[in-house]
Specification:
GO terms for molecular function: DNA binding; DNA-binding transcription factor activity. The chain is mainly alpha-helical. It has a single domain, classed as Orthogonal Bundle (Arc Repressor Mutant, subunit A). It contains 7 helices and 2 strands. The mean pLDDT is 86.
Length: 156
């Protein structure tokens, strides 16, 4: 099984926002797009979905940006993936003619595998993903991104 690029980006946004030093300044779509080399228009769609669910807060204006709006220690990765991927079956047995459908156990086996995947992902929280050096790296990335902006505002 593979997760979609949409979910991959969604997880990266949540990880970045959970690890960024947001007391200093919220992250922006442009910043995250640059950090992860993601097209801005695709990122905007992901951010929109994360905001609709309530996991992030998107603030407009001069001092706006993106902030994590969820408890990183309570947000389960399985829940994130269920929301972003949807809970659809891996194969569409109803949408196609198949001469094996009367006796096939593939549908049930794939459903069991998908449940096992989500159960395994539910063992991890967003806080788990930013532990240790990953969280430290994100703080450095965020601060390094902000540094040129701060220098420009001081020289103006």
């Amino acid at each position: 099984m593979r997760i979609t690029r949409f979910s991959d980006i969604g997880l990266r946004v949540l990880i970045y926002l959970a690890g960024a030093d947001q007391q200093r300044s919220p992250a922006t779509v442009g910043e995250i797009a640059k950090q992860f080399d993601v097209p801005v228009n695709h990122l905007v769609k992901v951010v929109g979905q994360l905001a609709r669910v309530g996991w992030i807060q998107a603030l407009r204006g001069r001092h706006g940006g993106l902030r994590l709006n969820a408890d990183a220690a309570a947000l389960r990765i399985g829940a994130v993936l269920r929301e972003l991927e949807g809970d659809a079956e891996l194969v569409d047995c109803e949408g196609q003619q198949c001469c094996l459908s009367q006796n096939c156990i593939l549908r049930g086996a794939l459903a069991a595998g998908l449940r096992a995947f989500y159960d395994a992902m539910d063992r991890y929280t967003l806080a788990d993903l930013i532990g240790g050096s990953v969280g430290e790296q994100i703080i450095v990335m965020h601060r390094n991104f902000l540094r040129p902006q701060e220098q420009n505002s001081k020289s103006s």
